[in-house]
Structure formats: C-alpha cells, structure tokens
Amino acid sequence: MVYKLNILHFLVALGATGCAGVLLREARGRLLRPVRLFAAPFLAAVAALFLLALVAPEAREPRLWAVALALGGLSGALRGFAMTLQVDHMWSLIRLPRGRDGLWTAAMLAGLALLTVMLTLTDGETGSYEALAAAAAAATAGYLGGRALALYVRTAHAPHRDLGRRLAHR
Fold first, then answer.
1. Which are the contacts of 116, defined by CB distance < 8 A and separation ≥ 6?
2. Distance of alpha carbon 8 from alpha carbon 17, whole angstroms
3. At 59, is the secondary structure helix, strand, or coil?
4. CB contact set of 99 (below 8 Å; sequence gap of 6+)
5. Which one, of 71, 144, 152, lies nearest residue 101 by Cα?
6. Residue 34: is its pLDDT beyond 50?
7. What distance, in Å, lies between the first and last C-alpha atoms of the chain?
8. Is the alpha carbon torsion for 76, 79, 80, 86 positive or negative?
9. CB 163 within 8 A of CB 89
C-alpha cells in the first residue's frame, strides 16, 4: 500500500495542536498577556493555508476559502465583542472567564486536519471534499482572528480589575 502523506500533513497537525495548546490556558480562565491572543489565530491560519496547499490544484477554490475566512472573521469579531473580559491595566493582563469557544474551534480545526488526512489515504476522487475542509479551516482561522482582534481592541476601553500582583509574573 502506498501512502500519500507528506510533510504538509504533519505541519497541519502541528499547527492545529499548537493552536489548541495555546487556547487551553485561555479556556481554563488563566491570566494572559493581550498579545498572546494572536498566537492561536496565527497557528490556525498557517494550518488553514497548508490545508489549502494540500488540495489538488484543479480542485482548489480560493474564492470559497477567502469568503469562509471573511465570514469566520466576522462571526469571531461579533463573539469577541460579546465576551466577558477582565483586564488589569496595571500589569497588562487579561482573563476570559468564558473563553472555551476558542478551544472548541481549535478542536474543530484538528478534526478537519484529521479528515483531510483520512481523505488523502483513500484512493477515490476527494478534491472537492478537501477544498471544503480547507474552507472550513479558513473559517476557523478567521473566527479566531476576528475574536482575538475584537478582544484586543476591547482591552483598551475595559474597566480596570485588579487581577492580583503575585499572579502577574506567570
């Protein structure tokens, strides 16, 4: 049996796993720096780009991918503006008490990566399914990016809340 896996599959899995690892701290309600909000969207975008690169050139749908990215970004921005956010301006720390949606999104990205690997291992014509998986991965990356941007913008105007001096060094 000949396997059609390549290094891009490994990089997609690494990006999805890294995205989930970064969002795990956020999902637990731990303190983090506002800049750290952008680590997960970056890893998700890299994974989504690699998923798009895995699609056969004749089956690629770059417009579908771009629309999915934009719609995901819009829905993520709406979610980011609606989330509960605690900000310590003195130590430049934030906490998202209900930030589990990012982890669910990362789990969906990991599922899409697994689906793409499984589609690659089949012998049938799966180009359109891989294109849809790449578009869905773009939507997850857009969601995380829009959410992070909205939360980052909100940190400047959110009321100060003392999150603890001893916790600021973590």
1. 9, 12, 51, 54, 130, 133, 134
2. 14
3. coil
4. 23, 26, 27, 29, 83
5. 144
6. yes
7. 49
8. negative
9. no
